[in-house]
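Structure tokens please, single chain.
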Amino acid sequence: MMEYVIESLESLRLFLAQIPGLATPTSAPYLFRPFLLLFVLALVIGPVATIVNLRRLEFNAEAMVHSVFPGIVVGAIWGGSDAIIPGAALTAIVVALALTWASRRPSLTEGGAAVILTGFFSIGIIISLKKGDMSGQLEALMFGRLLEVTDSRLLQALFVCFLALILMAATWKEQIFVAHDRHGAKAAGLNTLAVDIVINAAVGAVVVSASTAVGVLLVIGYLVVPGAAARLLGTTSRGMVVISTLVALSGGWIGIEWMNTPSVRPVSPQAAVSLSLLAVFLLCLALSKLKARFPWRKAEKAGQLAPSARRRSEAA
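Here you go.
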């Protein structure tokens, strides 16, 4: 089965190598695997980052990012690198339920998320130190190893992303309803508990999928930056999803191109992708400023035609 998958990935790489602009990501398998992972992650990040931004769940996302750390450590210690995603996934389920419980209690909210973050992350540090000197491995878990994505880890990450996409697609209308009017959603009889669990699970899926690639500490950028950029330019929820996806795709592609550019000192792949993502956000910020300062011509024409139309109606 694995041999068939590897052959399929290689065939896909050779096919995409003919497309202009993809020469670098498809030049070698060790570059194509992280590129494919970042591409699929972008498809998930589009809807997830949009809801995170609309519901102001950035701190919950931060809590999820740090809270899955014990699962990552346990998987790496007892099962090797290929067990990181399964270990993180099991922990993410527990964390998603805990964050949902805390967010539904007005007396806890962000305080509860902070307690969950601190507790789980501390457990991960204790476990890593208990097993002896893991300074090198701990750094890898914190900051990721983008170019060391194996075929098995890639398949695991793609499977988790696929599940997250299904969850978001199945509850998209409910997610938008709750994001814009939570009290109205409750009054309409919507099961807000299920909606909360799904978005926390989807955030966990993004964290689990990206943790081995860009690392625990940098994955928060993938959950927050695309949604923030989409908020600057998007006027509808669907538009925000498209913009978030494009921002994540652009950041991944630019990052891979950048880290392969000849330089005096090597560039960290994870840092290159994260900084590229921020660069795309700054571009979106500049575009939003220009849009606010210089309205589109259609709007100007509409404003110019309206008075003349009124004058003609008055003359008639």
